[in-house]
Amino acid sequence: MDEIKQIFRDKQFKKLFVGDTDNTLIQFFRYLFVGGLAFVVDFALSYILFRFAFGEQKEYGWVANSLSFIAGLAVNYLISTLWIFKNSKVENKLVEFLSFAAIGVVGLLITIGITKLFEVWIGDKTSLFQIIAKIVSTAVSFLWNFFARKILLYTKKDNK
Predict the structure, then answer these.
(1) Would residue 75 be called left, alpha or beta, if left means φ above 0 and alpha means ψ between -120 and 50 degrees?
(2) What's residue 150's pLDDT?
(3) Alpha helical stretches, state H, the chain
(4) pTM of model > 0.90
């Protein structure tokens, strides 16, 4: 928290965007942008697939979300590892990506579960259930993804 206070006190806002950092608040701030971009990719593709490829058939909401998830995951991994998380606990990049993806799969399961919940709850009232579910599940998944990745994959190694 002292580092953040110092940035604002000295008006060095560039540090929020540039340079390596292990500061969780700065990483979270950056992850808002990365997650936001991944969300836009995920949300837009989900909407396009659900509306146009699947003709708004409610039983395909989870398929649209699953496919769009993969696109969002790829964007998230690439930008996160280039801009936010520099100190991986995992040396092998394939294992790192698979671990990153596994955490994301939990986020996907959250998304699918919330989508199904909204389908049952309001699916017969409006086709917007899928969009509403996407917004709710995105917020929950965002928090899960950041903190799980930070703690499990990118917390600074202890050199003991």
Answers:
(1) alpha
(2) 95
(3) 2-9, 24-48, 61-79, 93-122, 129-152
(4) no
